[in-house]
């Protein structure tokens, strides 16, 4: 029998909407020794991670901790812990990930009320508020930044409206936290989920989430139902109403993240070291500085794309700063271009889904990948590939336009 080949991991420049490159400090942290999950040295790291999450998620909530699993594990944990069969859930959807919220809600037995807007746009808050009045949902669940279309939905007015109409506001902020402003408390978000492999710039595999007392009340009520079932008291009453998942039961998980440290699953200790170090890096950089870095690199990328004569997809008024969607020029196979970028330049950009498949490329500027060097290399490589495929674009303009932006930003900084 042949021995297994040595692990082969080529160096890449990753300009996709995740997973993205991570700071070497995160990888180093993840290679530290294993600790037992009840070791005081480890529970101290858990507590510090919760504190770091509160700051990055801009919340005073007691509960802010990661679910072990990718972002959708966090979404599923949140929804299946809140939604009971028959609960009405309003899902305003402006891309693929609105569909994910609907699918999970439906699997939890929720009654899904979806409203849609054309891909490439987002909702006017009034449209959503009107739908809240009409459907009177228990929960409004929606995406903040949808990576499939590269759009961002302003949330503040919707958050206020949810509170006013006494429904819970649940937000998938997977693509935005750590890259652009997300104000959990100020925007009155009751439950928020994010992921590690996007703007937090930590390997995939954890889904930080936070929730407030309004959600905790539901968890406690459903937990008491569960306990009633165990003791046989409320059997018939409420079999329907128990939280259907063990792994994703937030009422149990919060007991593990509380000083009680009740055993649940075995914590992914090395993954938590990575998250901790990623949060530390974000707070060292400063939230506002980090958002500014994301804006600057986005601006340079967009300037370069436009200087090439390519067209951006979607309504510019709601462009997601961490993802740039570019229309694939007529007569060009988008996958050929992506393959050449990867093989010849070791650069990865993304394709798209559903109605946009084959129509746009998506270029991420997220976390550690969101650097001047990466933006300039991506523009240079994309230009070279398109020229090689005989696309008629002006040669040499893209990188110059991006460099102009960086110079302009420097100038603005000095003159302020
Ligand atoms: C990437 C992404 C997800 C899903 O993330 P996984 O980590 O692959 O489960 C969910 N929502 C949004 C908005 C995303 O961008």
Number of domains: 2
Oligomer: single chain
Q: Return the string of H and E elements.
A: EHHEHEHEHEEEHEEEHHHHHEHEEHH
Overall pLDDT confidence:
96
Describe the global form. globular
Radius of gyration over all CA atoms, rounded: 23 Å
Attached small molecules: pyridoxal-5'-phosphate
Percentage beta strand: 5-15%
Strand order in the largest sheet: 2-10-9-8-5-3-4
Q: Count of helical segments?
A: 14
Parts with pLDDT < 50 across at least 5 consecutive residues: none
Number of strands: 13
Using the coordinates above, name the CATH class of the largest domain: Alpha Beta
Q: Helix share of residues?
A: 40-55%
Using the coordinates shown, work out and report the CATH topology of the largest domain: Aspartate Aminotransferase, domain 2
Indicate the structural class. Answer: alpha/beta
Assign the CATH architecture of the largest domain: 3-Layer(aba) Sandwich
GO biological process, one term: glycine biosynthetic process, by transamination of glyoxylate
Domain Aminotransferase class V: 37-351
GO molecular function, one term: alanine-glyoxylate transaminase activity
Binding site for substrate: 362
Describe this structure in words.
The protein is an alpha/beta fold. 44% of the residues lie in helices and 13% in strands. It has 2 domains: 23-282, Aspartate Aminotransferase, domain 2 (3-Layer(aba) Sandwich); 287-415, Aspartate Aminotransferase, domain 1. The chain is built from 14 helices and 13 strands. It is globular. It starts with 12 loop residues before the first strand and ends with a helix. The mean pLDDT is 96. Bound molecules: pyridoxal-5'-phosphate. Pyridoxal-5'-phosphate (PLP) is lined by residues 17-18, 70-72, 97, 143, 146-147, 172, 174-175, 195, 204.
């Amino acid at each position: 029998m042949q021995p297994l080949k040595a692990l082969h991991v080529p160096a890449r420049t990753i300009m996709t909407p995740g997973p993205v490159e991570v700071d070497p400090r995160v990888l180093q942290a993840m290679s530290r020794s294993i600790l037992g999950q009840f070791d005081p040295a480890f529970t101290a790291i858990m507590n510090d991670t919760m504190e770091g999450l509160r700051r990055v998620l801009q919340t005073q909530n007691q509960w802010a901790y990661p679910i072990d699993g990718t972002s959708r594990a966090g979404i599923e944990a949140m929804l299946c812990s809140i939604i009971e069969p028959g609960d009405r859930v309003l899902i305003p959807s402006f891309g693929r990930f609105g569909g994910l919220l609907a699918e999970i809600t439906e699997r939890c037995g929720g009654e899904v009320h979806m409203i849609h807007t054309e891909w490439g746009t987002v909702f006017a808050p009034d449209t959503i508020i009107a739908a809240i009045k009409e459907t009177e949902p228990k929960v409004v669940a929606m995406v903040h930044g949808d990576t499939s279309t590269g759009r961002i939905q302003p949330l503040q007015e919707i958050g206020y409206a949810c509170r006013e109409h006494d429904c819970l506001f649940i937000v998938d902020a997977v693509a935005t936290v750590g890259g652009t402003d997300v104000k959990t408390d100020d925007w009155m978000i009751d439950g928020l989920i994010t992921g590690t492999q996007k703007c937090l710039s930590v390997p995939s595999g954890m889904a930080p989430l936070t929730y407030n007392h309004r959600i905790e009340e539901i968890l406690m009520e459903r937990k008491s139902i569960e306990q009633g079932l165990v003791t046989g008291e409320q059997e018939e009453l409420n079999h329907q109403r128990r939280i259907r998942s063990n792994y994703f039961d937030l009422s149990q998980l919060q007991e593990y993240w509380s000083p009680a440290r009740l055993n649940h699953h075995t914590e992914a200790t090395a993954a938590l070291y990575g998250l901790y170090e990623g949060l530390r890096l974000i707070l060292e950089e400063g939230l506002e500085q980090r958002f500014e870095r994301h804006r600057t690199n986005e601006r340079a990328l967009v300037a370069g794309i436009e200087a090439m004569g390519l067209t951006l997809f979607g309504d510019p008024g709601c462009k997601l700063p961490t993802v740039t969607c570019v229309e694939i020029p007529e007569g060009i196979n988008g996958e050929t271009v992506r393959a050449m970028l990867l093989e010849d330049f070791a650069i990865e950009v993304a394709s798209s889904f559903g109605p946009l498949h084959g129509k746009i490329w998506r270029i991420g500027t997220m976390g550690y990948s969101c650097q001047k060097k990466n933006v300039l290399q991506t523009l240079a490589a994309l230009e070279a590939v398109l020229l090689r495929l005989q696309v008629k674009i002006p040669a040499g303009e893209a990188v110059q336009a991006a460099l102009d932006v960086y110079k302009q930003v420097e100038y603005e900084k000095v003159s302020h």
